[in-house]
Amino acid sequence: xxxxxxxxxxxxxxxxxxxxxxxxxxxxxxxxxxxxxxxxxxxxxxxxxxxxxxxxxxxxxxxxxxxxxxxxxxxxxxxxxxxxxxxxxxxxxxxxxxxxxxxxxxxxxxxxxxxxxxxxxxxxxxxxxxxxxxxxxxxxxxxxxxxxxxxxxxxxxxxxxxxxxxxxxxxxxxxxxxxxxxxxxxxxxxxxxxxxxxxxxxxxxxxxxxxxxxxxxxxxxxxxxxxxxxxxxxxxxxxxxxxxxxxxxxxxxxxxxxxxxxxxxxxxxxxxxxxxxxxxxxxxxxxxxxxxxxxxxxxxxxxxxxxxxxxxxxxxxxxxxxxxxxxxxxxxxxxxxxxxxx
Length: 342
Prior knowledge:
The chain has one helix and 22 strands. By secondary structure, it is an all-beta fold. It is globular. 44% of the residues are buried.
C-alpha cells in the first residue's frame, strides 16, 4: 500500500496505440508494449520511480506448439538504455481459435508460460479484443510480473520501453507496437492502492486484472483503472478523477475516509471505506469517464473537504450487466488516496 506524498511521481498509465491492420495481414504471433506503469516506491525520496513494463502477446491457432516467443525488455531514460530484462514466453499447448462474437468470448484459449529469472510469473491466455485499432478478437496473453527498473527522474524526463525478440525465439514480424515512451509530468495528486491484480486480496472469482488495475470485467480482462490529475488544494482544487477500461455503462465516483486492503464486493474489491460521499454518476464513453466535468462541483466542494485539508480515498463503481463472475452486476476500479492541502 502506497503512503500519501505531497511531492512525488505517482501512478501513470499509458496505453499504446496500434496502427490499423486488416485481418488479411494478421500474423500468427505478435508482441507489443501494452502499458507502462510508473509508481513512486514508498519510503524513497521524491523523484524515485519504479518502471514496470506491461506487454501483450498475440497467439493464433496457426502458431505451432511448443514455440518460443521470448523477448528482451529494454528500459530507456532520455534515449539512453538503462536496463534489459529477458522474459520467456512459451506457448506449450495448441491454441484454441477465438471466434468473434458481439463482445468476444472471454475464455481461455491456450496455456502460455511466462518466466523471468527462472520464476514463473504468469500463465494462460484469453480470447480478447483490445480497445482501439488492433488485430481484433484473438488469443492474447497479458504479461505482468516481478520485473521492474528503479530510476531517479525529474519533470520533463522521458522514460521509454522497447521489446525485441530474445535470441533463439521466433522473430518479431509486426514491430510498430514494440516501443513506447512517456514524459514524466509534474506533481500528480493521487497515490494508487488496493489493486485487483493478485498482489493483495484475491478478486472474488480469481478474475485478476492487470498490474495496478481493478479486477477483470466481462469486456476487459485487464480490469478498470482509476487515476487522479490536477492540484489537490482545497482553496484551488483542480483535481479530476478518470476511470477507464470499463463497459459503456454507468460509473459512480465516490469518496471515502479510510483505505481498505480490499474487500470482495460484486465482481471486484472495495477499497475506499469509512464515511462515504457520492461525488457523481457518469455515463461511460469508449469505456471511460471523469469527474468533475462541465458544471460539476469540484471534488473538494462535493466531498466537503475541510479548509485545513486532510486525506481522502477515491474509487469508481461501475455497472457490468453481463453474467460474468458473481451474481452481482457491478465491479470497481483500484483505489486512489489523495492528501489534500489547504
